[in-house]
Structure formats: C-alpha cells, structure tokens
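Q&A FORM
Asked by: J.P.
Topic: structure of Cathepsin propeptide inhibitor domain-containing protein

PROVIDED:
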Amino acid sequence: MHQLSVLITILLIVIASINAGPVLRDGLPSRYHVSGVIQLPYAEISEPFESWIDVEAGFSRIDYYGGAAKTVQRKGRGQDYGANYKIVPMSDEQVLNKISCFQSNGSQADIVDVQHTLPDVSTFQDMGSAEWRGIKCEMYQTIDQVGDKKSTYTYYIDVASKHPVHYEMFGYDSLIGSHFDKYTIDYYNYDEEPIDPTVFHVTDGMTCTGFPGPGLEHTAPHVLFNPMSEYINRRSADYIESSFEQFKKNHEHKYDSELEHRQRMKIFRQNVRYINTRNRAALPYKMKLNKFADRTDDELRVLRGRRYTKGYNGGLPFPK
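REPLIED BY: S.T.
REPLY: Here is the structure written out as tokens.
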C-alpha cells in the first residue's frame, strides 16, 4: 500500500511537471513561441517576425518577413562562446537570390546568448491595470535617463491569458525638444509548447561564411546578425552614435551646434533602420547608405527640384 501511494505521488508530480509552463528566468519564460510586428513610425516601417526561444536548449530563432531573413542565436557555453547565424537570399554575377548562410562567432568579451523577443520585466515597475485597444492588461514600465535623453519602455500583458500584447519605447531628448526614437511591437500567436529541436537547425547542410554586406559600413555586426537586439533587452551601447561619427568623418559633415548634431543623428538613425529592414525583406534590390542620410525631407526636396532664377532666361514667351 505504501509503495502504491509513492507511485501515485510520483505520477502526480510527473503530470504536474508536464502541464506546468516553462520556469521564469530573469522575468522571462524559458521557452516560448510568439509572432509580432515591429513598427518604426519615424521610418514608416512595419516588419513582421516569428520567433522561437528555448533557453534550456541554448537556442533562439527569429524570422523576418515570413522567413525571407532568418537569424539563429546559439548560446555560448564554457570555452564555446556561441555563434550568430543569418540565412538570407544573396545575389552576385553568377546566381540570383541564392539562399546563403553567414556566421559570426562570439568571443570571450562578447559571448552570444539567446535573443528574447519579450522584454525582461524583472527590471520593470508594475503600474497596475490598463487597457490596450480594448484588452484589459497588466502594465509594466521602466525609465532610463541618460543626460538629456529619457527613454520610457512600456509593456502590456493580457490579464486573462497572461500573454504578451504590446511593447513600446519612447525616447525623448529635452535638448531638441522632441522624440529621438520610437518603436512599438504588437504580439500575437503566443504559446509555451515544446519546440521541435529541428527548428533551430536551419543551417544544417549549409556552409556558413562571414557576412559580405551591405550594411557593415553603418551597422554594428551584432545588429546585422541579430536585428532584435536593437529593440529588446539591449545590453550593449547604442551603436548609432559611433556609426554616426564615422558617417560624419567619411562625408566631412560638420554641424554648427550640439542641437543640430542630435537632430541630424535622429534622422540618420531612422534612415539606417529603414535601409536595414528593407534589405531583410527579400526585395529585388539592396539599399545602401549615402551622404544624404542626415538630410531632412525638405532639404532633399530642394535637391530633387528645379531651382528658380529671376529674370529673363532666353526662352520664347508663352503663347497667349
């Protein structure tokens, strides 16, 4: 009888462990699948994605534009510092849109980790109940203040299902008196079901090489290989600042004040993001940054339009 009760207890524990959801680690589920749309209003971009994250397995995968671009992150363990993989169609003089694999290995100073697509709420403050587009949610928020720049991150979770709903970032610069950055993510199709390991082995049978570009001239390699790292749980410095300094040096751009510098960098940031996301969309062309990446729309209109000169231009009078 005692043995029977022990067996029943063990069976109940096994059933409970099967039915239980993944354990939270650092405010994040250890295993989940979710789709969503990244929206960059200043760059006029909506980028769909689908993601699979398995912390225990040490892998994450994020597909953009329905799989037109795939990225895989293999977590570093011990002396293996991990690797980032990018699978995209590439063209050259011989082939058109050949599916190619590119690899960037981690290092002791930059160990690769799984890339979450949900924010780490352990650093957020619980703001109580709120509604998002008619959905009753729990709202979490954190604020990051660096000098004149204030970044506010807000995350909404469905009260009933505990599923992610919406995430947004607003960056306000008091010097220029406006937002320097803004992006949002809407989530859907969330689940915590076991993930087939083959999901993460999309590079099997492929030879992966270093990434030839375009993009390396204006974007940090870790962002090119892992675009989501720019938006979710960012742990590295803002690469845009160093990229903008290099852009200014390359094209000999100088500004009259710190105010103009920040305004130009805001424009540059959105142009870089626009180029990177369009290059992930498997379009029949690739985009590249040029010397006008810090210009306003009005300045570009002047360059595209005809300049008017007062006085007689030598032409015949218009017939009446």
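FOLLOW-UP: Residues 1-25 have pLDDT under 50 and may be disordered.
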